[in-house]
Amino acid sequence: MRRIVVLSGGIGGARFLRGLLRAAPEAEVTVIGNTGDDIHLFGLKVCPDLDTVMYTLGGGIHEEQGWGRADETFAVKEELAAYGVGPDWFGLGDRDFATHVVRSQMLAAGYPLSAVTEALCRRWQPGVRLLPMSDDRIETHVLIDDADGGRRAVHFQEYWVRLRAGVPARAVVPVGAEHAKPAPGVLEAVADADLVLFPPSNPVVSVGTILAVPGIREAIADAGVPVVGLSPIIGDAPVRGMADKVLAAVGVEATATAVAQHYGSGLLDGWLVDTVDAAAVESVERAGIRCRAVPLLMTDVEATAEMARAALALAEEVKAV
Amino acid sequence: MRRIVVLSGGIGGARFLRGLLRAAPEAEVTVIGNTGDDIHLFGLKVCPDLDTVMYTLGGGIHEEQGWGRADETFAVKEELAAYGVGPDWFGLGDRDFATHVVRSQMLAAGYPLSAVTEALCRRWQPGVRLLPMSDDRIETHVLIDDADGGRRAVHFQEYWVRLRAGVPARAVVPVGAEHAKPAPGVLEAVADADLVLFPPSNPVVSVGTILAVPGIREAIADAGVPVVGLSPIIGDAPVRGMADKVLAAVGVEATATAVAQHYGSGLLDGWLVDTVDAAAVESVERAGIRCRAVPLLMTDVEATAEMARAALALAEEVKAV
């Protein structure tokens, strides 16, 4: 039984996990989910990344959209707008709403987010153990230019969803991370893992935020097991989303090589780049990270499973060294 | 400009108010709404009677049902059930849900229920000033027999909705009423009123609960203006709902006369009974309450307006004495 730990953001991570479960159906997979883009809306705690993983693996996801529920309706959102209660830019569907109601009610009753997530997963049966990176509140804020020539911080969701990353991100700050503790089970899962995977999630606001929780990066680096990542950048552009915008904020080029170097050889043992970036293999390996070029487009579950198999094979290769 | 104060429960009160506004379009109507059947569900504060008044007068009510929203959907409720989160016996629709979300968010932010109700009414424009009877939490509980031969208290909504008043009510207790204060504006509205009306709402769990808030009954009795009620009992049965079940708990017969006597001549100056109860006029008047028999079925808005006109006429008669 292989024990695999995956650090996951939302859509990219969730889709990769579906491929991984097909590639390694016998594996015991623990997902450490990003909670940095959690947001409080209408008095409710919304955890977009955890929910995307849960819905995707549990069969409730809106497939085309990649987030939110299938067969969704928006009566609650319409009514909130009719009351003039915002924000109106966050697409909260009725079915999705219920998840946040259950979560918020359990949190108000005193349960930590990790226990709440476990309870929600009892319904969805995602086939992985889904852990929030932390039970403490961490909120990713993005520093942008304001009209007066100064800077102001906006919640990551406001930057991503409302502004559609349309203005330069000057800095990305996981507010609260420095005092946060990993959720129960996180460090134990890393210590017990046979390998650790970084799916093609956003290296700054998804995987980066998880690594910003004190103790997690160190535990991975010290685990003595292969750590293999998949590039979210193909041909100098993010496959999906707007990763390039937030990479610039941390001074990293939007290339497969630069992202690997950003993680660094102290953390990363293996790195998969897309076949169009085959030329990057040499520069990544020069940075001390074993690298292979394989097709990295998650066009369907089988193509994604093939990516997962390549990552598992690379982990074996790394281990054999 | 006539200033009319109406003590209102849910469906019966709301429908009566619609007739009253047609009968007296120039009047300034203040509604003191029952909050004794408020309930906390899924972490949200639900105020069924206030909402029924607001939706009915604001054009959002489900007409046939008498409560809840028109064109309602139930995605949130279905999802909560899928999570195994109850109760499942309370019919909370998606549109209705949004009202409770807005209310709960404002309450959590520190606004009293009266301010929240005013804010919600800004959308609905009910054409009346709607005040909760109190900003303090009061919850009507019903004492029923338990399986062991003892008694247990259940929330009024559990008795009414889940149990459908199918077991005898041994007592009805407005928990918290004794320490509650009337909401801001309630006593002032009564003091300034030209007349006070009791619509054909439940005399125990609707009007009775409002009167249980210390100060309200006294203010009405002392206002020195006509107080006129309409019987919710026609031909020894409640027109709607299960008023007879809770009348028994307070030792009152389900007759138009007994309800009038229950309010008492110290409070009530005039009482309307239905034409089928014309024989009751004499016994009510013997109890010191002026009484008239008119059709009391709220079959449509015009029939209801006619009832309101009869109540206003009776108030004039009382005043002229």
Query: Quick one: CATH class of the largest domain in chain A?
Result: Alpha Beta
How would you spell out the order of helices and strands of chain A?
A: EHEEEHHHHEEEHEHEHHEEEHHEHEH
Find the CATH superfamily of the largest domain in chain A: CofD-like domains
Widest β-sheet, arrangement of strands of chain A:
5-2-1-9-10-13-14
Mean pLDDT of chain A: 95
Q: Strand count, sense and closure of the main sheet of chain A?
A: 7 strands, parallel
Number of helices of chain A: 13
Quantity of strands of chain A, as a count = 14
Domain count of chain A: the total is 2
Strand portion of chain A: 15-25%
Coarse morphology of chain A? globular
Radius of gyration of chain A using CA atoms only: 19 Å
Q: From the structure provided, what is the oligomeric state, counting identical versus distinct chains?
A: homodimer
| First-last Cα distance of chain A | 22 Å
Going by CATH, the architecture of the largest domain in chain A would be 3-Layer(aba) Sandwich
Q: Unreliable runs of chain A, pLDDT <50, ≥5 residues?
A: none
Task: Explain how this protein is built.
Chains A, B: It is an enzyme of class 2 (transferase). Chains A, B: Homodimer. Chains A, B: Belongs to the CofD family. Chains A, B: Its cofactor is Mg(2+). Chains A, B: InterPro entries: CofD, CofD-like_dom_sf, FbiA/CofD. Two copies of one chain form a homodimer. In chain A, helix 11 runs parallel beside helix 12. Chain A starts with a strand and ends with a helix. Chain A is an alpha/beta fold and 321 residues long. Chain A is built from 13 helices and 14 strands. In chain A, 40% of the residues lie in helices and 18% in strands. The first copy, chain A, has two domains: 276 residues, CofD-like domains (Rossmann fold, 3-Layer(aba) Sandwich); 39 residues, no CATH class. In chain A, strand 1, helix 1 and strand 2 form a beta-alpha-beta unit. The first copy, chain A, has a seven-stranded parallel β-sheet, sandwiched between helices. The first copy, chain A, has a three-stranded antiparallel β-sheet with strand order 7-6-8. Chains A and B meet through helix 3 and helix 4 of A and helix 3 and helix 4 of B.
